[in-house]
């Protein structure tokens, strides 16, 4: 499921225009490696805490256990909202990216067709509906879906790499271009900052490595399985990303031509130009599209579980309703899924006002999920790491250094992805990530004042929670 959520080819190509604007090939390949190294420190940090406290509540449960009695309620409340909103936005960005991918696929055969914002939004609703059907009515098949996604992704990377290198109809690029070409002029930012702006695709791809934690109560032996999944996902993802990116960079068509695509998604045109035919371009596009659909199903499942867990702990308005498990739908948290979906459908309307909405969705996902992961790590650091000294997966003497790098990286990312990708800024190119981020922060604060401070008691201590299949405290996967 971790590999399905990460969906490396989809995560790297759906926002690839940002990396092309940020500088091109050098940003794409070296940015990927840089982000992978920094993300590994976060993966190690999360795995250590997860091995001691494996629960579907995830990071906000960890904040409750690690923070002092005086601050634990507020810390877990803030973190829980970051986790839930991050899950919603990651799911929204994947579905919306898939919708834009469909528009790009149509553009392969109908280049004269320019999809309107409302048409793209309707396609997004279609993707959301398909993912919902799988998650609600075929819940017991989801592990099989994740396995199929991993196989589809692995084989897809091989097929795409071989085809691109074999055809190269747009010409072959020298090593100096594929690994060293850097042109920040399209972004308008200074060269250094332009490079960092272009890091959105790799940061977005790795942003959801912790979403697998939400499935802790639905897998066997989570204290061993989850840390192993979190830690191994980064090097596996990094290696597959390099194998996927290098053939693209060595056969990359003219960047200016790719960025002129009206859909804002150049992947369809890029594959068509490299393969030299519409049929060839469509074939490679279909592989990425399949990954996007698989990923949509997985992120939908994970975000609904995060919503359910937080509602179970009485932190969401009308928590009694959203924490119910439907006995007639294979024990699926259908109400929590409905809440997650409705919020995403409403937020998707932002696209009608800004063509950069996808970047905003992806940016908020990176910011919220990153901040939610960094909070328990930061609290552990401030406690001198005394709470994790007996964790089954222990970082030992390198723990302090690894934790510090992880926290600093997330702090930088939070600032970075609040910025617009291009300057000067217009209404259509405005990055609304900071507005959405602050908006949910205000909602969280207001609800805490109205309700949370009176009724929220934090997540149940793990040793006190007894769950059984079909009960209100468990959901089958």
Automatic annotation (TrEMBL):
<feature type="transmembrane region" description="Helical">
    <location>
        <begin position="429"/>
        <end position="450"/>
    </location>
</feature>
<feature type="transmembrane region" description="Helical">
    <location>
        <begin position="270"/>
        <end position="295"/>
    </location>
</feature>
<protein>
    <recommendedName>
        <fullName>Amino acid permease</fullName>
    </recommendedName>
</protein>
<dbReference type="InterPro" id="IPR002293">
    <property type="entry name" value="AA/rel_permease1"/>
</dbReference>
<dbReference type="GO" id="GO:0022857">
    <property type="term" value="F:transmembrane transporter activity"/>
</dbReference>
<feature type="transmembrane region" description="Helical">
    <location>
        <begin position="121"/>
        <end position="142"/>
    </location>
</feature>
<keyword id="KW-0472">Membrane</keyword>
<feature type="transmembrane region" description="Helical">
    <location>
        <begin position="334"/>
        <end position="352"/>
    </location>
</feature>
<feature type="transmembrane region" description="Helical">
    <location>
        <begin position="149"/>
        <end position="170"/>
    </location>
</feature>
<feature type="transmembrane region" description="Helical">
    <location>
        <begin position="190"/>
        <end position="213"/>
    </location>
</feature>
<keyword id="KW-0812">Transmembrane</keyword>
<feature type="transmembrane region" description="Helical">
    <location>
        <begin position="358"/>
        <end position="381"/>
    </location>
</feature>
<feature type="transmembrane region" description="Helical">
    <location>
        <begin position="71"/>
        <end position="90"/>
    </location>
</feature>
<keyword id="KW-1133">Transmembrane helix</keyword>
<keyword id="KW-0813">Transport</keyword>
<dbReference type="Pfam" id="PF13520">
    <property type="entry name" value="AA_permease_2"/>
</dbReference>
<dbReference type="GO" id="GO:0016020">
    <property type="term" value="C:membrane"/>
</dbReference>
<feature type="transmembrane region" description="Helical">
    <location>
        <begin position="225"/>
        <end position="250"/>
    </location>
</feature>
<feature type="transmembrane region" description="Helical">
    <location>
        <begin position="401"/>
        <end position="423"/>
    </location>
</feature>
């Amino acid at each position: 499921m971790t590999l399905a959520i990460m969906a490396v080819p989809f995560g790297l190509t759906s926002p690839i225009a940002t990396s092309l604007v940020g500088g091109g090939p050098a940003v794409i390949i070296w940015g990927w490696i840089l982000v992978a190294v920094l993300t590994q420190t976060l993966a190690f940090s999360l795995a250590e805490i997860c091995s001691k406290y494996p629960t579907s509540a995830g990071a906000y449960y960890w904040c409750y256990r690690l923070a002092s009695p005086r601050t634990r309620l507020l810390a877990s409340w803030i973190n829980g909202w970051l986790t839930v909103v991050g899950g919603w936005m990651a799911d929204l960005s994947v579905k919306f990216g898939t919708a834009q991918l469909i528009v790009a696929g149509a553009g392969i055969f109908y280049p004269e067709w320019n999809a309107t914002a409302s048409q793209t939004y309707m396609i997004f609703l279609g993707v959301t509906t398909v993912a919902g059907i799988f998650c609600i009515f075929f819940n017991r098949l989801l592990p099989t879906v994740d396995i199929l996604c991993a196989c589809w992704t692995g084989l897809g990377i091989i097929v795409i790499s071989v085809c691109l290198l074999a055809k190269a109809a747009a010409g072959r690029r020298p090593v100096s271009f594929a690994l060293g070409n850097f042109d920040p002029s399209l972004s308008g930012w200074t060269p250094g900052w332009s490079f960092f702006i272009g890091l959105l695709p790799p940061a977005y791809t790795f942003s959801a490595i912790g979403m697998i934690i939400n499935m802790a109560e639905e897998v066997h032996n989570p204290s061993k399985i989850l840390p192993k999944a979190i830690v191994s996902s980064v090097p596996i993802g990094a290696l597959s990303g390099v194998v996927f990116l290098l053939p693209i960079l060595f056969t990359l068509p003219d960047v200016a031509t790719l960025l002129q695509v009206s859909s804002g998604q150049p992947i369809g045109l890029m594959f068509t130009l490299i393969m030299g035919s519409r049929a060839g371009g469509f074939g490679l596009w279909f592989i990425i599209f399949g990954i996007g659909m698989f990923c949509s199903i997985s992120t939908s499942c994970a975000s609904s579980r995060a919503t359910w867990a937080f509602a179970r702990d009485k932190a969401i308005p009308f928590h009694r309703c959203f924490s119910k498990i439907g006995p007639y739908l294979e024990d699926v948290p259908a109400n929590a899924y409905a809440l997650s979906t409705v919020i995403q459908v409403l937020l998707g309307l932002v696209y009608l006002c800004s063509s950069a909405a996808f970047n905003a969705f992806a940016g908020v996902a990176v910011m919220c999920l990153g901040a939610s992961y960094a909070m328990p790590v930061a609290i552990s650091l401030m406690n001198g790491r005394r709470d994790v000294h007996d964790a089954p997966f222990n970082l030992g003497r390198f723990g302090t250094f690894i934790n510090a790098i992880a926290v600093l990286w997330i702090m930088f990312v939070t600032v970075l992805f609040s910025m617009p990708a291009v300057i000067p800024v217009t209404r259509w190119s405005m990055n609304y990530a900071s507005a959405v981020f602050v908006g949910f922060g205000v909602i969280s604060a207001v609800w805490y004042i109205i309700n949370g401070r009176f009724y929220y008691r934090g997540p149940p201590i793990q040793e006190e929670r007894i769950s059984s299949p079909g009960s209100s405290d468990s959901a089958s996967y």
